[in-house]
Design brief:
The chain has helices at residues 3-18, 25-32, 36-42, 46-66, 75-91, 97-104, 106-133, 143-156, 170-185, 188-204. The two termini are 36 Å apart. It folds into two domains: 1-58, Arc Repressor Mutant, subunit A; 68-204, Tetracycline Repressor, domain 2 (Orthogonal Bundle), CATH 1.10.357. It has 206 residues and is an all-alpha fold. It is elongated and about 60 Å long. It is built from ten helices and no strands. The chain binds a DNA duplex (6 and 6 nucleotides) through residues 24-26, 35-37, 40, 45-46. InterPro entries: Homeodomain-like_sf, HTH-type_TetR-like_transc_reg, HTH_TetR, Tet_transcr_reg_TetR-rel_C_sf.
DNA sequence: TACCGT
DNA sequence: AACGGT
């Protein structure tokens, strides 16, 4: 594996597990089995390592989301795929990460902001429009407002004052919000199709 | 690996 | 004191 990729993979693992601040450049060098000098030949500073690591992680997320059942091939199947994505994505994520990045790594935070605006929001809007066309979501919801609300609710669980990690875990929170969001926009047909699809999925995966 | 500055 | 950076 390329040195650069090895550094990024090591950093990704450590950042996800422990957050960005408590993982030192010495830790990453030691765990990657290289010297700090090698890291600084590939990355100008920690700021850039954090940026490149999460840039890489977001690209992986996009690829994984593209492998889910496509929105165009079935909104309901896609929804069940999304719940699985949520379980994986937030399951191994230290709850402090987003706050640390927002406070101490502003360029990386901007990367997340751009990702939300350019990718997440568009995906949600596509899902809402398709779901309305298919009669799964109520026609009267305002796509733009509800898409923005959905995106922000995914972010505010990272506020440790509102949602202390000691009391809530990220996966349970995200799944609870997702279910609540869906039941707020489902038609009767949508609700039934979703529950049926979820049961089918669970039967096949037990 | 040792070292310096913050 | 610990950690980024040389």
């Amino acid at each position: 594996m390329e040195t650069r990729d090895k550094i990024i993979e090591t950093a990704k693992e450590q950042f996800m597990r422990f957050g960005v601040r408590s993982v030192t450049m010495d830790d990453i060098a030691r765990l990657a089995g290289i010297s700090k000098k090698t890291i600084y030949q590939e990355f100008s500073d920690k700021n850039q390592l954090v940026f490149d690591t999460f840039s890489n992680a977001l690209q992986d997320d996009i690829i994984r989301l593209e492998h889910l059942p496509k929105i165009k091939d079935g909104v309901i199947e896609h929804l069940v795929g999304l719940t699985n994505f949520i379980r994986q994505r937030f399951g191994d994520m230290n709850p402090m990460i987003m706050n640390e990045i927002q406070r101490y790594f502003p360029q990386c935070w901007q990367l997340f902001e751009d990702f939300k605006k350019d990718y997440v929001l568009k995906e949600i809007i596509e899902l809402l429009e398709k779901g309305k066309e298919e009669g799964y979501f109520r026609m009267e919801i305002n796509t733009e407002i509800i898409a923005l609300m959905r995106m922000e609710q995914m972010m505010f669980i990272f506020d440790p004052i509102k949602f202390p990690p000691s009391k809530f875990n990220a996966v349970d929170l995200q799944l609870e919000l997702f279910e609540h969001f869906l039941h707020g926009i489902f038609t009767e047909k949508g609700r039934e199709a979703y529950l049926k699809q979820k049961n089918q999925y669970n039967e096949n995966h037990n």
